[in-house]
Write a structure and sequence with these properties.
Length: about 110
């Protein structure tokens, strides 16, 4: 029922939700010795989703590692949470607008 763009936006929302879970796990493990930050290569993974593949979790390089082996940077994770949330809100509003347009079209067709 939705156009292809709306379907892709729905896939994008799923990817954002996956990233939100990873960032939340990173924050939850900020004090876990040996824990390594996990993330998603967003551009690559979105293209992969469009091709039908599941997202792959990566360990970002270049992060400072503490003496206990943990490399979670809470400031980085909080920035990612905020960025992810803004993207999610924007795309969900676009999808909501498409759904509203379809409802109006159906209502108009009924007279």
């Amino acid at each position: 029922m939705f156009d292809p763009l709306t379907g892709r936006m729905a896939q994008y929302l799923d990817l954002l939700a996956d990233r939100q879970k990873l960032v939340a796990a990173n924050i939850a493990n900020a004090d876990t010795p040996g824990y390594k930050t996990k993330d998603i290569d967003f551009h690559f993974e979105f293209q992969s989703l469009l091709d039908g593949a599941a997202p792959h979790v990566i360990e970002p390089e270049g992060l400072k590692t503490k003496n206990d082996g943990n490399n979670v940077d809470v400031d980085r994770e909080m920035r990612l949470l905020s960025e992810n949330s803004m993207r999610f809100n924007l795309v969900s509003q676009l999808v909501k607008g498409d759904a509203r347009d379809i409802r109006l079209a159906i209502k108009d067709a009924r007279g």
